[in-house]
Amino acid sequence: MIPRYARKEMTDIWEPATKFRIWYEIEAHACDAMAKLGVIPQENADAVWKAKDVEFDVARIDEIEAVTKHDVIAFLTHLAEHVGSDEARFVHQGMTSSDVLDTCLNVQLVRAADILIADVEKVLAALKKRAMEHKMTVRVGRSHGIHAEPTTMGLTFARFFAEFDRNLSRLKAAREEVATGAISGAVGTFANIDPAVEEHVCEQLGLSPEPISTQVIPRDRHAMFFATLGVIASSIENVAIEIRHMQRTEVLEGAEFFSMGQKGSSAMPHKKNPVLTENLTGLARLVRMTVIPAMENVALWHERDISHSSVERGIGPDATVTLDFALNRLAGVVDKMIIYPENMLENMNKFPGLVMSQRVLLALTQAGVSREDAYSMVQRNALKVWEERLDFQELLLADAEVMAALGEDGIREKFDMEYHTKHVDTIFRRVFGE
User: Does the active-site annotation cover 265?
Assistant: First the structure.
């Protein structure tokens, strides 16, 4: 995570001050619950709340940790400096450090997920807007990078919309997956703390109690969360790659918005490069590289080891901050993207009529020609279009065998573009429900 690819709303979640505030709330709510159970005096629980408006001194906590070599103990020592040693003596009663660390991490991930959900919704809005604008803007569909059959730019945007709509569902499920907390003690048995404390703390923080924990919350939950972020990153790259290909000089069917004063190259003043989508391709790699470490965190020794901790301190902010930035950038790129319908038609007609080959093939088989013979008849004419840039329809009209099977009118009607767009409305209803 570097500031260049970060937004403050997301980075704030991972600031030390935010972390210590969440730690404090966990400890304070736990004291409240224990006081209600009669485990600790009410006045001690009330005393902890004296620190509710305190800005915890990160430098002071770091100073204490330099001696204790333990971040949670350093925080508790600093808290006692504000509350008073005697008043704070029941803080952390029956708890273990991971009760605080894991519950805090999940609060942070839930908050991050809420921002990411809003980000995905921005992308969806931009994709839907452009899909509606270009619903019937015809362009050539490509498979293996080669002209295939006609489609529309609206369908291109619509399929990306459907993909991100699935991502929205995935992200909401991932949020729910990590929205658990654990205040269950050293090995998860509640030996020194009542489960009611966990229930109260989780309720106050908007979490659900982890059904069964060890010293830690099971890491399969976090693996699923980061895997979901990886899928979303791949979807970002999917859109970015399409736009990058569209902006190639010899294609130029679409392009990133080029602002006044923007420059594309230090050497070549004419350049207008797809730098934003290239950047998104790279950012997607950064998000995906957090997935494998999250998967490897699932297998811990017995009731817990600490091998996951250093990983999560890195991938938590790295993945969420980077993805947040990327989603916001993508929404802007899609919203401002320039579309060139005339170039789409020009590209499709570089090999005149060739994209209608399948329709001619099917017409020949329906006219009684064997599929093998029909394929040969169509291909021999198609190859002339490839090699000599001739007009496919004119070649078919000059082919005696094709004419005998279909006739002139039968051939000409196979080149009607509306044949390929007749079900666009149906697809849009499926995607957008309209």
Answer: yes
